[in-house]
Structure formats: structure tokens, C-alpha cells
């Protein structure tokens, strides 16, 4: 039983990364697509550019989450990027 | 998934991480993507398939006068789509011998849309059989037909996102993919080497739009 608990517990970082990739990546992509509106460009252009870029942001975030050394770093990277994007998104919300 | 299975182990290279990501992103929704690619490819021939599946329509030796066809179908739409505020008609052309029309009627139930296929020679609605023709493959390609279109499009979008991740992680894993892709190794190398080459080619072909 203890061995089983250990086995499940050892998957924690992996599960954490998967959640970071699926939900964290989505959040980052959504944030960036809104944050683009804060840039000094025409609104329709910004909407389209943000939508197109969001797919690359999402894919890049997933690659990042699985590339770094630990799950903690993966989340930290997402949060560090999300902070300025949130500010930009907030300024236009 | 060979070698180092522990994601958190130190010294685990990026190639190994990306290889695992490539494997799982591809494996989880690859079967959905296969159905999308297959039906999307077949959909290139949707007009020809539609002609084949509606044999009751007369063979079209040459494209009939578009204005006359439009008038015939418009007359029929006046009977079929009573009270509609909008008609959209796709006329016949060199590849397509039936007229497709859909209309919007605010007073009708549901979302208010109706549609039908029409004979270009008579203008009559084709009622002899219920078939989408080749259109089935086009719709299946992005909404899977056997489930609600709304969720089908979500599934197609999620599968496409998985494929983008699989492509990027795959290129990182096989960083010499472009060289390997164009290397012709007839009878050279180990069995494993040549299957790997085949695999590179297959995956690269598959990822082309």
C-alpha cells in the first residue's frame, strides 16, 4: 500500500506539468491575445494579431512546461510571463 | 519512451523531454487527426462525389446558363422557403451539377435556417434521397458529423492544438529533420536506421497542409 501511495505521489510533478500545459498554457495564450490590445496599433489589427499569435503562445508554453528542469520552474515561468501580460490586459479591459 | 523515465531527474536532456511530449501529444489525439486528414483529403473531390451520389440528376454536358438556373431555383425557393428574409444560392459550375441553397427565416423554429439541393434543369428540390453527398466529408473534417457540431469543432480545435505541439516538439527532437528528410539511403544503414528514415518522411508528409 505504501509503495502504491509512493507511486501516485511520484506522479505529482508530471500531473502538475500536464495541468500547467493544458490550463496554464491556455490562460497565457488568452491573456496575451487580450494584452496585444494595449499595443499602439489599430484595434482590428491587434485583435487579429493577438488571435493568430495566441496559437503560437499556447504551443510555446506547452513546450516550455515540458522542457524545463522541474514542475515548479514550469509554473514560475508561466507566472512571470503572465504578470506583465495581466497588467497590459487590465489596462485595456 | 526509452531511457530516463523520471521527468524530474537531473541531466535529462531537452531532446528526451521533447521526445516524450512528441510521443504523447501525437498518441493521445493522433487517431482523431487521422480521421480529420482522411476526410479532409477526400473532401477535395466533394463535388464529384456529390454528382455520383445523386444519379437521378441529369448529366451536365456543359454548364447551363447561370441566369436561367438562378431564375428557376428562385421561383422554386418562393414556394419552398416562404417568408424567408435571406436566400443564398450556390449555382452549378463545371464540377457541380446540382444547385445548393440555404435560407434564413426568422419566424421558423430553431435557428431559422433551412437548406436543400435543386435540379438545375427543372429548378425542383431534389427529394429522391437524403444524402449530403461529398459534403459529408467536408463537414466531418471539422465537426465529425456524429456529434453536435459545436462540440465537434471544439474537438477539432483541441486536436489541431495537439498537432501543433507535436510538430514543434518533433522538430526539436529530430533537429536534423530537414537533412534526414532529403537524404536518400537506399539499402544503407541498419534496419532501425531505415525505418527511422521512413518515419521521418511519413510524419513530415502528414504535417503538410
Could you characterize what this model shows?
The complex is a heterodimer of chains A (93) and B (209). Chain A has 93 residues and is mostly helical. Chain A has helices at residues 2-10, 12-35, 43-67, 71-92. Helix content of chain A is 86%, strand content 0%. In chain A, helix 2 runs antiparallel to helix 3 and helix 3 runs antiparallel to helix 4. Chain A is elongated, with a radius of gyration of 16 Å. In chain A, 27% of the residues are buried. By secondary structure, chain B is mainly alpha-helical. A 3-stranded antiparallel sheet of chain B has the order 1-2-3, with helices on one face. In chain B, helix 1 runs antiparallel to helix 4 (135-143) and helix 2 packs across helix 4.
Concise summary:
The complex is a heterodimer of chains A (93) and B (209). Chain A is an all-alpha fold and 93 residues long. Helices cover 86% and strands 0% of the residues of chain A.
Chart the SSEs and their pairings:
The complex is a heterodimer of chains A (93) and B (209).
Chain A: H1 2-10, H2 12-35, H3 43-67, H4 71-92
Chain B: H1 14-42, H2 46-53, H3 66-80, E1 86-90, E2 98-104, E3 113-119, H4 135-143, H5 149-173, H6 177-181, H7 191-206
Helical proportion of chain A, percent range = over 70%
Q: What is the total tally of β strands of chain A?
A: 0
Shape of chain A: elongated
Biggest beta sheet summary of chain B: 3 strands, antiparallel
Going by helix content, strand content and strand pairing, the class of chain B is: mainly alpha
Rg of chain B computed from alpha carbons, rounded to a whole number of angstroms = 25 Å
Order of adjacent strands in the largest pleated sheet of chain B? 1-2-3
